[in-house]
Design a protein that fits this description.
Elements (H helix, E strand, L loop, with lengths): L5 E2 L4 H10 L6 E4 L3 H12 L4 E5 L11 H13 L3 E4 L3 E6 L3 E6 L4 E3 L2 E4 L8 H5 L8 E3 L17 E3 L7 H15 L13 E6 L2 E7 L10 E7 L4 E8 L2 E8 L5 H9 L4 H4 L1
Parallel strand pairs: 1-8, 2-3, 2-8, 3-4, 9-10
Antiparallel strand pairs: 5-6, 6-7, 11-12, 12-15, 13-14, 14-15
Length: about 270
């Protein structure tokens, strides 16, 4: 994974590494089928490369989109000539001095001159560990963003609140506000978790999902779905205990602002329909 041609895109320098790798002819493999991985695959396809996305979960975007949405999105990718393989377990990245491919657990090797790794985040906790702070997946904090040491605060991608390390910009902004206020002696502005949202633009389509997309097996959801297979559009709403908890738009995201507001207000089923 450390050899040239294997890139995790986080900085402008990483983008330059991708451009350098594309100077050589050959295929590309994207490891990870989340939003960034899928958008990377789309851009590599637009550069004229044969692209395969390897995602360990099945279906695509598991927990963030339901099966119908995942299948329609996968079909959109296939229509553009992009291969998405779910349930893919990787055994190694091959090459000596430069990447040559990715080998799966079943022994199949996919040739590649470029491998983009997009498998989520892992917080850098070295400094926090050396300081003796309590760690989980990241640096554990309370709603004031205080760590286990009362005069040390953490926020953003390195912070874990209520067992969750989201790594999202919208969350980081609100965490920063709470941390700054508390560090200045004002405890009246605690952190309030933001409603998670997903926005994808790739494969000639777009996807927006906000809140709970029916992923909790312990809940019994009521759903309302408007689907057009010819236009490849889905508009779906998820209700729990009569209240809107999530919504997904695929193919037509023009109602993005409206559904975001409705989810944030937990509107009733009767108010929506």
């Amino acid at each position: 994974a450390e050899q040239p041609g294997v890139v995790a895109v986080r900085t402008l320098e990483d983008v330059k590494k991708v451009k350098n790798a594309l100077e050589a002819p050959g295929d590309a493999v994207v490891i990870g089928g989340g939003v960034l991985g899928l958008e990377a695959a789309w851009e590599l396809h637009r550069e004229g490369r044969k692209v395969t996305v390897l995602e360990v979960a099945d279906p695509l975007l598991a927990g963030k989109a339901d099966t119908a949405v995942s299948e329609m999105l996968s079909a959109a990718a296939k229509a553009q000539g992009i291969t998405i393989r779910t349930g893919a377990v990787i055994s190694q990245i091959t090459g000596q001095g430069a990447v040559t491919g990715v080998t799966l657990a079943d022994g199949e090797t996919l040739p590649a001159v470029l491998v983009v790794v997009s498998c989520g985040i892992r917080a850098n906790t070295d400094v926090a560990k050396a300081a003796g702070l309590t760690l989980g997946r990241a640096v554990q904090v309370d709603d004031q963003m205080r760590t286990s040491a009362a005069d040390i605060f953490a926020c953003g991608d390195c912070a874990e609140y209520q067992g969750v390390n989201t790594g999202l910009w919208s969350q980081a902004v609100e965490m920063g506000k709470a941390a700054g206020a508390a560090a200045a002696g004002d405890d009246s502005a605690p952190y309030v978790p933001q409603t998670p949202a997903l926005h994808l633009a790739a494969f000639g389509t777009s996807l927006y999902s906000v809140g709970d997309s029916g992923s909790d097996p312990k809940k019994q959801y009521k759903t309302v779905e408007f689907r057009d297979d010819q236009r490849r559009t889905i508009e779906k709403y998820y209700f729990f205990n009569g209240r809107l908890v999530g919504a997904t738009l695929l193919g037509d995201t023009s109602k993005l602002a409206l559904v975001t507001e409705a989810v944030s207000e937990n509107r009733s089923f009767k108010a929506m329909f």
